[in-house]
Amino acid sequence: MGAQYAPGMGWLDVLGWAGSALLIISLMQARVLRFRLLNLVACMVLVVFNGLLGIWPMVAMNLALCGINVWFIGKFLSQRHSEVAFEVLEVGALDEYLRHTLRVHSEDIQRFQPGFAWKPTAPGQAAFLVQRGDETAGVVLVRDAGDGVAQVELDYVTPRFRDFSPGEFVYRRSGLFRDRGFRKVVTPAGMVAPYYDRLGMRRDGPSYVLDLS
Predict the structure, then answer these.
(1) What is the dihedral angle through the alpha carbons of 138, 126, 91, 184, rounded to the nearest 10 degrees?
(2) pLDDT tens across 145-172, in order?
(3) pTM, full prediction
(4) CA-wise closest residue to 141 among 107, 175, 162, 170
(5) Distances (CA, A) of 26 to 14, 30, 73, 198
(6) 58-90 as b/e: b if 16+ CB within 10 A
């Protein structure tokens, strides 16, 4: 028989509630890697909790979930810097799917790039979708500023893929800018929590600059 659960075991109550709360919090995560990490910790806590109570079917279930989470986390991390994980597709500035993506994520885009407004009919505009399989991981909108300078109007990653490195692929590995004759890339000014320093870009006022020559 399993151990009897006595009302006086307050610390065990805390352990069980903490594991359950963390499990619920993990299910609320949009970012896939964060979901798996939090879910793994929650399952480990519940393994201990149910083991102390002797509830072995629950121990077995949570151990199985731990194994599943570890497998997915390992898979995600192995693909995080993979050159084949992402693909950049150029689309028309007036492409309907592009407009749909911008519309669906408009509130989140404004949170990270306040005041952004796309002007698809302006000269020199180009639009790119960053794909992971059949899922859209991000959007990059670029304006040809002349003299070999690519002015990035929008650099947006969808919530699901923010634990990955689509920006590293776009700026360093995809050839998106170099193949189109650009010698320098200038990022949008005023971005909230920019990540460009991690890509080795240099700060230039409110923007970052990537020299391709």
Answers:
(1) -60
(2) 999 999 999 999 998 888 777 777 788 7
(3) 0.72
(4) 170
(5) 18, 9, 14, 27
(6) ebeebbebbeebeebbeebeeeeeeeebbebee
